[in-house]
Amino acid sequence: MTENIQSTEFDPEFDEKWEDDFSTGDYERAERAALRRVAGLSTELEDVTEVEYRQLRLERVVLAGVWTEGTAADSDASLAELARLAETAGSEVLEGVVQRRDKPDPATYIGSGKVAELRDVVQATGADTVICDGELSPGQLRQLEERLKVKVIDRTALILDIFAQHARSKEGKAQVELAQLQYLMPRLRGWGETLSRQAGGRAGGGNGGVGLRGPGETKIETDRRRIRDRIAKLRRELAAIKVIRETKRSRRVANEIPSVAIAGYTNAGKSSLLNALTDAGVLVEDALFATLDPTTRRALTPEGLPYTLTDTVGFVRHLPHQLVEAFRSTLEEVGQADLLVHVVDGSDAMPESQVKAVREVLAEINERNDVPMPRELLVVNKIDAVGDLGLARLRHLFPDASFVSAHSGVGIEELKVRIAELMPRPEVVVEALVPYARGEVVARVHRDGEVLSEKHTESGTLLSARVRPDLAGVLEPFATNGSPA
């Protein structure tokens, strides 16, 4: 008996079509999902007397926060955001507790009595990690781990872990590693004198002797020195990458192409908006900090004038200062832009707090670089997920904003028109009679300038256009109104 075996050879036409249908964002999403943990599929053995068995599962965490200022809604929103961060990092959130205090306890972050209650919650839920909604000092971290008997991390370490998972480019990985090392440096913990190579007391005495004399460095001191060396190397690498970035930016500046930077809160839809405006095909995912590496794409105004759109890293409440420092070269794209498109998540319960958090980080960048911030255009995204009452509230909160849905395309064309209106326009008005033999000059005026009028005469094309200074110099030999105005 013979069987028909289907050929497994690749069809070139199908393979080419598959390649065309997939964008860079699709490839990145497939890469992230290539190996992942799935919760709820445990087949743990009941009898483990003969087999040592360990379950592969999501990390189970309990959240702990301190409410020091603002309303109860602000505190709940902060803890809910911490839960989303934990889920993005690959954890399963079991419980969350908040303590009302004037300020965090200097020894244990939360009060010593609440530490005992938190310990009971950890034991009852079977959690193996506690995440605190704030940045812990090395002493607080050590005290909590000793009392809770589980791993303890803070908000900063959690965000750094997400950045480490999502960084793709060489620059992004170097920036994240630099931020992690800066965070780790004061929190190194070692075994103290047991790892010391220093001889104590006189040779031959009770605390020292032959074989114990050495250079005097403990293991923790050696680790610190290595971290400092690695930080110095990363800074040199980032400085070299910054030169490349500035070279690319200088080419755009030399060509006088306007630049637009897209900034905003994480998961507000910045990458979705970039895709909607330029068909960039970058990764879009309903997760915090899904994209870290800046993406620059070329776009055209409705009149056909070119400009660039750059998607930057997202912001969050209490963004770690290590990240602001490490991503400074990337965030400089915002300060160097001609227009800032500030994207806000309209479906968020408190969008005004998002706007405040982003503007605080931008003000910090402005203060460090001593560069005035560009003109801001507020764009409220995800209006398709908001009801009529919510949309009316948003219009009251942000009367000058543009309201769009990058997912459905609502308001995108109106946004393109408004971006074109706010971008710097050519300043020099020129009237020129260009011979028909110089058609490339006319084409360049149409491409890089704003044609006010055009008339074909016997001797050439009579143009009245608004152009930039470099193009005005090209048109000067053909000017009919003397020198360019």
From TrEMBL:
The keyword Transit peptide does not apply. GTPase that associates with the 50S ribosomal subunit and may have a role during protein synthesis or ribosome biogenesis. InterPro entries: G_HFLX_dom, GTP-bd, GTP-bd_M, GTPase_HflX, GTPase_HflX_N, GTPase_HflX_N_sf, P-loop_NTPase. Residues 258-427 form the Hflx-type G domain. GO terms for cellular component: cytoplasm. One of its GO terms (molecular function) is ribosome binding. The gene is hflX. This is GTPase HflX. CDD domains: HflX. Monomer. Associates with the 50S ribosomal subunit. Residues 10-20 have a biased composition (Acidic residues). The lineage of its organism: Bacteria, Bacillati, Actinomycetota, Actinomycetes, Pseudonocardiales. It comes from the Bacteria. Keywords: Cytoplasm, GTP-binding, Magnesium, Metal-binding, Nucleotide-binding. Residues 201-214 have a biased composition (Gly residues). Its main location: cytoplasm. PROSITE patterns: G_HFLX. Belongs to the TRAFAC class OBG-HflX-like GTPase superfamily. HflX GTPase family. Mg(2+) binds at S271, T291. Residues 1-20, 198-219 are annotated as: Disordered.
